[in-house]
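Q: What changes when flavin-adenine dinucleotide is included in the input?
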Amino acid sequence: MKKVVILGAGFSGLHIFYKIRHLIGKKIEITVVDRRSHALLKPELPEVAFEGAPLSHSLIELEHTLENRGATFIQSDVERIEAKTNKIILKNGKHVIYDYLFITLGAVKDYDAIKGYKEYGYSVCDDLQAQKLWEKVKNFEGGHIVTGAAKSYWGTRVQAPKLSAPCEGPIGEVMFMLDYYLSKDKNLEVINKYQIDVFTPAEIFFEDVGDKPHEVIGEFMTKKQMNLHNNKLLKEIGKDFIAFEDGTQMPCDLAIIIPPYIAPQVIKNSQLGDEKGFIPTDTTMRHLDFDNIFAAGDITALAQPKLGHIAIIQGAIAAASLLKELGEEIEIPPHDLEVFCIMNMGGHEATLIDSNTLYGGNRDIAMYSPISKLMKWGFDNYLYFNRGHMPPDWALKMTDKLTQMF
Ligand SMILES: Cc1cc2nc3c(=O)[nH]c(=O)nc-3n(C[C@H](O)[C@H](O)[C@H](O)COP(=O)(O)OP(=O)(O)OC[C@H]3O[C@@H](n4cnc5c(N)ncnc54)[C@H](O)[C@@H]3O)c2cc1C
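A: The predicted holo structure follows.
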């Protein structure tokens, strides 16, 4: 029986687990390690931050979910991976041995890198931040709101787009959901009672998609009188201002920021990353230096942008790579990436974005419709009630077909 270990039970770790679990007891045993007791569904956090939705709907309990399905779950921080001896050192002092390893630990949001963030900054990127933001939003009486992403930096070992901001979708949700809440739910009616300014470190906002999404998002921003500032590198957040590297400042009473993405320290400690700590893999998601290590999702150097949808595509590839190695009849899917996300805009409003222009394709869809909202609702609920199990492939293909009709 081969020992398979999955480090990190987020989007990609859980997807890999569901893809390989049919071999438990036949060819493999599986151990999953995560520091959290519950996986966090981050795409649902904007609802926590701007609608006061309960956090419980964004959480999937891990121990029973995994152990009832035949795996061993260990709740612990991973401290080091000793790839030469196939050994993982955990924070509780114990260690785990593997024959095959999946590393799906995600990326770290580096709040500490932003001067003044601790005192004055807000974000939507994790459960604590989203709940803290809702407390602020609920009591917000008007003023200047500034939202945007800080710049992230990447290594050079693999060929991948180098995005300044690897996940700007949440910024779209922040600005539209906040505007919806303040204008409709909270009824801060007078338009100049609050002003939303949006910045991006890139030359263009949403640099990972093509013209159509830019057009649709741009029209909404104009209609809602939001200002957009390109090429802005965040320097500091102050009590009533936000400052940029080019010497400019904006008045700011509420700063909502996506911090820089960095690689987890454990990968740097274990010398398994590129010069920035993200894991270099080939397109079958196998580590470039270690044949028995696979990686998927935000932690990989190939995942650009850093999206749950890409974590799932890569998770399926990594799982198939192992299954094939274990003698199963399976084709390894191609590493065909695309940007696919549904931007919640508050109320019944949402825009579905489906674009592969970043990878040289010509699909570039932006579907603003209540159907998009319904699709998001259906997908989020499916994932929650099925404990992180993705909808079946036929349902995803049907979604794709439906999208392309628009
Ligand atoms: C607000 C927000 C909204 C988003 N909306 C969308 C969306 O609509 N669509 C979309 O496609 N993507 C969206 N994303 C991006 C998406 O959430 C991520 O790309 C996805 O979660 C990445 O999956 P992953 O499995 O790589 O990592 P994660 O889901 O981050 O999972 C990593 C796991 O590893 C664990 N871990 C990390 N380090 C350690 C350690 N040292 N020891 C033990 N355990 C550890 C963590 O606890 C976590 O459970 C959004 C992101 C945010 C922040």
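Observations recorded in class: Residues 338-406 form one domain.
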